[in-house]
Design a protein that fits this description.
Helices cover 36% and strands 20% of the residues. It has 173 residues and is an alpha/beta fold. The protein has one domain: Peptidoglycan recognition protein-like (Lysozyme-like, 3-Layer(aba) Sandwich). A five-stranded mixed sheet has the order 5-4-6-3-7. Strand 1 and strand 2 form a beta hairpin. The longest helix is centred in the C-terminal third of the chain and has 18 residues. The protein starts with a strand and ends with a helix.
Length: 173
């Protein structure tokens, strides 16, 4: 880890990031786009034009193979690069302290393709470990707010069970 430096009363990494931006994460929130087409650039443009946001509402987007992408390809938004809070829920605390992941697809209508599910599980596991996020703080949007997101075919109880199993298997290696 890079050394920390105190400048004007703010703790910084040598690279200039505020320490609180690196260490504040304690939620992972999973979403779906409710659309079967798009990529990071497409949704960034949509959110900027329609909502006036500086970027897509999420930190990571997992593609489904449309719009010139590969199924399971993970794209990182500027929100993650800059460690900014997102706009993915109507719960302010979760937007500030949560990592938002969105999968391209409408999982009210169909199941999550295998490549996207595999990418989701590996991304969640990595973020969970790097940031010490408890398993019960890995949630679907609908577990925080009255919404169908991330769709009835993306079962977050199953996602949490798979993450726990992956951690258990890794511990036995």
């Amino acid at each position: 880890m890079a050394a920390a430096v105190l400048i004007a009363g703010a703790l910084l990494y040598e690279g200039g990031r505020y320490l609180w931006r690196e260490k504040r994460w304690n939620w992972i929130v999973v979403h779906h786009t409710a659309s079967d087409f798009g990529n990071l650039a497409y949704f960034r443009d949509l959110h900027q034009r329609e909502k006036g946001w500086p970027d897509i509402a999420y930190h990571f987007l997992i593609n489904n193979g449309t719009a010139g992408t590969a199924a399971g390809q993970v794209e990182e938004s500027n929100l993650w690069h800059d460690r900014d809070g997102g706009y993915s829920t109507k719960v302010h605390e979760v937007n500030q302290f949560g990592i938002a992941i969105v999968l391209v697809g409408n999982f009210e209508k169909h199941s999550v393709p295998d490549q996207q599910m595999e990418a989701l599980l590996h991304l969640i596991l990595r973020l969970k470990r790097e940031h010490g996020i408890p398993l019960d703080h890995i949630v679907g949007h609908r577990e925080l707010w009255a919404t169908a997101c991330p769709g009835k075919h993306l079962n977050m109880s199953e996602v949490r069970a798979k993450i726990a199993e992956m951690e258990k298997n890794d511990a036995h290696r």
